[in-house]
Design goal:
The protein has 326 residues and is an alpha+beta fold. The chain is built from eleven helices and 15 strands. Among the domains are: 70 residues, no CATH class; 117 residues, Immunoglobulins (Immunoglobulin-like, Sandwich).
Length: 326
């Protein structure tokens, strides 16, 4: 269970929010999407009110399977048939080609939460798909999978032939390297050689240079802070300024979007700070930084070692591929 998808149900932040919302069934459609992962089945939704849904016990419910969260079958199995992106699959079981695997539609099923009658926002709390539509990267042929499921050559099954496929790790906002590729930061001063008494202006430019959606995206609890700090030799903060970039939502009594100042793809924003240089500048230091805030349950040291080892195995090129290249 090395991907975030594999922990979608057991994730402590999801569990906390779900409990706050009285364990409403609709959340499970994405966090445990298979029928036998859900304890009840919905018979009717009166007037579209999901909180008033009429439910009945699910005789096929498997609580252990529920803990597996988003499994291979969630995307690839429907009505006993295994679907995939290839038209020439050879397998001992029934397979079928689904062109949606080559588009963003396969991601749209969950990464596009829609608004209900008592919810006042244009884009759902996890509306990454809507942020992507019609934007810079789509016009250039990039889809979600281009970044989050990059191509790789490896056996699709143990003992099978090496063929082109995609990584199933879904690296994104939880991965420092992916965040670093999405965000570009530039800092400059308006005076190259300031003297004591001069008031110097600094500009930090933050650009969404590599993401095909807004940054940050997904969970509204994610946000950036842009900070300027003036410190003395001992590290004491003499002056500071902080700005926030994110999306703020009021959850109760109704869901209401308060504001959204995130960056669309290829958009930039300037953050400015000015400071008067004192007479004594010995050891004076200006620090400008961008911090990314994301709630995450940290694994234990043992779990972290196991995760790194497993990811290394998944990312290692196959021997067959090396021999072909030589």
């Amino acid at each position: 269970k090395t991907s975030i998808h594999a922990h979608a149900y057991e994730d402590p932040f999801f569990q906390a929010y779900w409990k706050k919302d009285k364990n409403i069934w609709v959340c499970l459609n994405c966090h445990t999407p298979l029928e036998n992962q859900q304890p009840t089945l919905v018979k009717e939704i009166p007037r579209g009110r999901v909180e008033k849904a009429i439910q009945e016990p699910n005789p096929h419910y498997d609580p252990e399977y529920q803990k597996e969260s988003i499994t291979c079958a969630a995307c690839h199995v429907r009505d006993g048939v295994i679907y995939g992106p290839f038209e020439d699959s050879v397998a001992p079981h029934l397979t079928k080609f689904d062109p949606n695997f080559r588009t963003t539609q396969v991601c749209n099923r969950c990464h596009n939460v829609v608004s209900g009658p008592a919810q006042f926002y244009r884009v759902g709390p996890c509306g990454t798909y809507v942020e992507y539509e019609g934007q810079y990267w789509q016009e250039r042929g990039f889809i979600c999978q281009s970044c989050h499921m990059p191509e790789i050559e490896r056996p699709v099954a143990l003992g099978g032939p090496v063929r082109k496929g995609r990584r199933h790790l879904w690296r994104g906002g939880h991965d420092p390297d992916m965040v670093g590729r999405a965000v570009a930061v530039q800092v400059k001063a308006d005076t190259a050689a300031p003297k004591p008494g001069d008031r110097v202006g600094f500009t930090l430019t933050l650009t969404n240079a590599g993401a095909g959606h807004k940054i940050p995206t997904g969970d509204p609890d994610r946000f950036f802070t842009v900070e300027f700090l003036v410190e003395d030799r001992q590290g004491n903060v003499l002056e500071q300024q902080s700005s926030t970039m994110g999306r703020w939502i009021l959850w109760q009594p109704a869901i209401l979007e308060l504001y959204d100042n995130r960056l669309f793809p290829q958009d930039s924003r300037d953050y400015q700070f000015a400071y008067r240089i004192p007479e004594k500048t010995d050891g004076l230091k200006l620090r400008a930084r961008v911090r990314y805030h994301i709630p995450i349950a940290r694994p234990s040291p043992t779990e972290w070692q196991q995760l790194q080892s497993c990811c290394a195995q998944l990312n290692r090129p196959s021997r067959a591929r090396k021999s072909q290249a030589s």
